[in-house]
Amino acid sequence: MPESSVERKASRHQPKRWPGTTGWRFAFCTVAFVCVAVIAVRALLVDVFYIPSGSMEPLLKEDDRVLVSRTDYAFGEIQPGDVVVFDGRGSFAPLGEGGLRQTFIDAAHFFGLGTSETTYVKRVLGTGGDTVACCDPAGRLTVNGNAIEEPYVFSMDAASDTEFEVVVPEGKLWLMGDHRSESFDSRALLGAPGGGLVSEERVVGRATHVLWRFERFTTIPRPSDHPPSAGFARNA
User: Fold this and answer.
1) Per the confidence metrics, is the pTM higher than 0.70?
2) Does the structure show a pLDDT above 50 at 78?
3) Is residue 22 in some structural domain?
4) What's the domain count of the chain?
């Protein structure tokens, strides 16, 4: 049947759809959803961090990528022997400049563009209330007067070449690298404001796995994962 004048007028007022519009809209929504999901996971659950130096050898090597759990300390306490990633601004590094520029820098690091000079990975040697000292007659660190075994320390290194004794306030951490002779850590800041101590609030999370390089994929143990003879043990 021929099209009526009413139908012709109605068709002129109907919005035109470009070919493939529905497909592009679906693709855009899918990409947006994935991006939001990734941001949420990285901000709330787990993240991946780049290792820029050998300060944690032999456990972590330069250019490794580690998986960091952001939830471990939401349900439990930071333990001596844990390997943690933390924001060093205000302790290990100067505070950021702030403002829009700092926001862009932080966003770039979040999306893996460039490397952060203010994010560090170290091992917890003392938590609030601990007295950490170097060293006993056998050359071992002591915590609360008890010598600790440290099988993770780089094989050619002493427990520390710097003598110290530090009482860790509540809410603070004493942190050191496993490659003691190459690590910039709490010892280097003993005479600085804050004395090299890092606030627990600055901890991003616990490093749980080495993800990259693939041939080095492994779980990063914590003291409770092993018997005292194999992990961070405090000996009477």
Assistant:
1) yes
2) yes
3) no
4) 1
Cα dihedral sign for 174, 79, 86, 182?
A: positive
pLDDT tens, position by position, 130-177: 999 999 999 999 999 999 999 999 999 999 999 999 999 999 999 999
From the list 91, 169, 176, 195, the residue with the least C-alpha distance to 134 is 176
Q: Side by side, which strands form the sheet with 142-143?
A: 164-167, 131-134, 142-143, 146-149, 233-234
pLDDT average, residue stretch 96-100? 50
Quick one: residue 225, left, alpha or beta (phi over 0 = left, psi -120 to 50 = alpha)? alpha
Q: What residue spans of 96-145 are helical by DSSP H?
A: 99-110
Nearest to 56 by CA among 211, 176, 155, 200: 176
Whether residue 29 is contained in a domain is answered as no
* Residue 9 amino acid letter: K
**Residue 45: closest CA among 77, 75, 79, 68:** 68
**pLDDT surpasses 60 at 67:** yes
Q: Where residue 69 sits, what CATH number does that domain have?
A: 2.10.109.10
pLDDT of residue 47: 87
Domain of 147 in residue numbering reads as 47-234
At 31, which helix (H) or strand (E)?
A: helix 21-44
Contact 183, 174 (CB under 8 A): no
- Dihedral angle, C-alpha 158, 205, 102, 32, nearest 10 °: 140
Token pair, residue 73, equals 């300390």
